Amino acid sequence: MRSERASRVCIVVLEEVEEDESSSSSPPPQPKSSPDRRSHHASRRAAAQEDKPSLLRAIFNVDPDEVRSLIFKKEDVNIQDNEKRTPLHAAAYLGDAEIIELLILSGARVNAKDNKWLTPLHRAVASCSEDAVAVLLKHSADVNARDKNWQTPLHVAASNKAVRCAEALVPLLSNVNVSDRAGRTALHHAAFSGHVEMVKLLLSRGANINAFDKKDRRAIHWAAYMGHLEVVKLLVASGAEVDCKDKKAYTPLHAAASSGMSSTVHYLLNLGVHVNEVNAYGNTPLHLACYNGQDVVVSELIEAGANVNQVNERGFSALHFASSSRQGALCQELLLAHGAHINMRSKDGKTPLHMAATHGRFSCSQALIQNGAEIDCEDKSRNTALHIAARYGHELIITALIKHGASTAKRGIHGMFPLHLAALSGFSDCCRKLLSSGFDIDTPDDFGRTCLHAAAAGGNLECLNLLLNIGADFNRKDNFGRTPLHYASANCNYQCVFALVGSGASINELDQRGCSPLHYAAARPRCQMKAFYLLRNDADPAVRDKQGYSAVHYASAYGRTLCLELLMETSGTDILSDSENQAPVSPLHLAAYHGHCGALEVLLSSLLDVDVRSPEGRTPLSLACSRGHQECVSLLLHHGASPMTHDYTHKKTAIHAAAMNGHPECLRLLMSNNDQRINVDVQDINGQTPLMLAVLNGHTECVYSLLSQGASVENQDRWGRTALHRGSVTGQEECVEALLQRGASVCVRDIRGRSPLHLASACGRVGALGALLQATSASHADIHLTDNQGYTPLHWACYNGYDACVEVLLDQEACRKIKGNSFSPLHCAVMNDNEGVAEMLIDSLGTTIVNTTDSKGRTPLHAAAFSDHVECVSLLLSHGAQVNVVDTNTRRTPLMMAALNGQTNAVEVLVSSAKADLAPQDTNRNTALHLACSKGHETSALLILEKISDRNLINCTNAALQTPLHVAARKGLTVVVQELLGKGASVLAVDENGYTPALACAPNRDVADCLALILNSMMPTSPMVTIAAIPALSLTQTVINHHPTSNHISKGVAFDTPPPLRPDHASYCRPERPLSSVSADDELNDSDSETY
């Protein structure tokens, strides 16, 4: 079996066993009971080093008398070597029971661990020494000890066929199914190693035959993979599942097929396993066998009925795999003999011939061609096998394909020919083969690139010269306006540039971007040779691309120092001061931004103005500081760059740039500049100082650096916000602590009256809030600060639902006294459905807060009902909230608020659970039913109707004498109208305009008048005449006489909706939004509609 496995090179599909496993190490020599054992070990250890402790030498010499003598001389029995192995480890490794006994009785630690966590018991078991194991177990060796791979002595025994040792260990174990780090049990190791007796022992002692490791592989997977047929048979006989799958859906048949274990494959097939079972990638056992070149297994599988044309998830058949395999020739032959489709295409259009061409399998490609494979079949990228062979440089396959009629003029990906791909990849021999067929070398691809363009881009001089020698056009432009010289300049082979220039290629030709070959050469690494050669052949360094950049700009941006020096020597400083075709930024800006000190130094030696500006007014120093390039900053400062120069747009300086981007080293360099006076509190257009920006972005080191230089903590920006405001918003606790230590005021307010306490509470920054409160306590400051609308920090924390902040605030005695806006913190909490915060407030402040009212007489229950937050409504009701309380402005109850807004859940709780009174009327005498109907909230109206049994309430009128039936009919609420009629609603009731509910359905006055006329004319026959007889007659007479009175005209005949609860543009008394971005230039808006 092993010779069969060794006869083929197998690609491991499952996985190798960990190299560090103790079980995989070479087994030690087997101990023997004869006296010759000691001489055997002595000869093996004859070359023992003199530098080893004498006790170890005695142990390895297997000399118990010498060991006893050394122990008597007080030799340390627990001495460790550099791998933390003790003498007991050595004795256990040798399996010498007598020496082990001596060492233990002399105080040796029986469970000592080396640096791999192996104990002497692990070593003894690995040596298969049952005597040594017996002695160790007698002295309480830990049978559950684990090494670094979590392997116990039982794992080691299973791996090393130490059956007798395992028999001694198992009775002392509570569980034989303990797994190692990879999830493998002792049974896995025994199966992998092929130890039949060990497998029998473990199964007899209760080992779980279907236990799986971390990849869901069972013992039968490993036995099948290793080809241990007897173990596989034993496992199957003991109940192992032969069709089990691991996480990738590999079955034991997959495992055996992949490693070429034909006997195991044959046995599994005889058991009736599914021969075409697929794994997670759609591969059958036949796919794996073909990929690994296992022809014997392939034959077995085909005979068992394997589908030779089954494809995996990517559309590859077994023939695709065989054609790409190094050992796949015989597999390919078998597949073709059994009807495999030779031209089957994968999902990306590749045939087996494509696969052979990709991997360079010449014999496979020959077999495919001879068996009728389509030569010029295209994949989805339009590539034929010839394209692919040319791309990968498989000359023999190219020869065979051309010999059998493959077209060299067929277009592939991007319209390229095989010669394009060979030239691009630099395979000159392949180019010669393709050229010999008479191909036109100047034929372009879809982008207008010829084969010479491809050779120049590939950088292979031999290919380039080959094409030039047969007359390729070296000045031909592609669709981007680039010649082969552009591509050669962009690659790293300067010899291609020499060859093209030497052939007469145009030096200063520009592409569509306005770039010359010199531009591309200047941007590439190791470009000085190309640039020098181009300049020597009259390349113009002053040429600018369409953005205004010259080769100097490109060299500066990419840090090509030597090329830049060459350009400066050639063109002088005039190229830097050219006022025409100015680029967006200077070379100095580009070098500083990208941190190229060498290029920067070259440029600075030729420039007088170090503080050259970009269109936005940024200086090179500002850019270098923003990117944190310390060396560039130092260099610019050395040449006189000013840290205090403001840009044009935001008026920021280099100090701002370093602070806001968190570069403390750059800041220190700027501050230590003695050549200029530095203002550490310099302000930008919004009044922001570097300290503010550093705090805003959480750059603690920059904050400390600025504070150490005397930065003011009291400065305010145009919105009145300090650095402490910013730290409170972002929650940067270290920054806040640093500012407070420097005396920053907690009570300072911005233009909206908000202090840092407000902002920390509003943004949920509990750490910063705690620091601020501690500072207020130390300074005896007022923590009951209110903003311009009277809201305190507690209001803001409750509104946004930050439980932790609320808890911190309520811990302050002063916060338990509600002050500020009468729209209380409890109003704020229930308004935004912050039930936890609301409960915390009630528990801390008492139930009296439940019925507090705001300036309009609204309670928290009004707010909760208005927002339909049922949990908050229930919470308030459970703490004694008055369900029928009315506000002072509109005289509406919480139920009326909920009904008006169609808050069905709140309505249901209030009418069902809280038994809210349905009779109260607001200032317009609307009941809750009126209000629900007026806004078309059918479900809310039905919930209220369900609880009404009083006909008087059904027919109750509002200030416009409208009953709920009028309102519901006007809004087209069919179901509500039906319910109202069923509960006895009057159809004869008239409103202030004299209209019945029927006329109230009219969309406007004119329609109502017309309907009245029609009904009047129907009086003799229509039963509806009694509904509106009097008002209709008077109205008809008025209309016919065309003398309407002014009073009649002033009264609307259409339904007037009751006044709204609040203006449509205003929210329910919500606080303003907080500082969303302290650096944003936002407008002031203190209206009630502003929210956080």
TrEMBL record:
Keyword terms of this UniProt record: ANK repeat, Repeat
ANK repeat segments: 83-115, 116-148, 149-181, 182-214, 215-247, 248-280, 281-313, 314-347, 348-380, 381-413, 414-446, 447-479, 480-512, 513-546, 583-615, 616-648, 686-718, 719-751, 752-788, 789-821, 856-888, 960-992
A Pfam family hit: Ank_2
UniProt feature, compositional bias: Acidic residues: 1080-1092
Biased composition (Basic and acidic residues): 1062-1073
Annotated region (Disordered), positions in chain: 16-51, 1047-1092
PANTHER family in UniProt: ANKYRIN REPEAT AND PROTEIN KINASE DOMAIN-CONTAINING PROTEIN, SERINE_THREONINE-PROTEIN PHOSPHATASE 6 REGULATORY ANKYRIN REPEAT SUBUNIT A
Entry protein name: Uncharacterized protein
Originating species: Lates calcarifer (Barramundi)
Annotated gene: LOC108877712
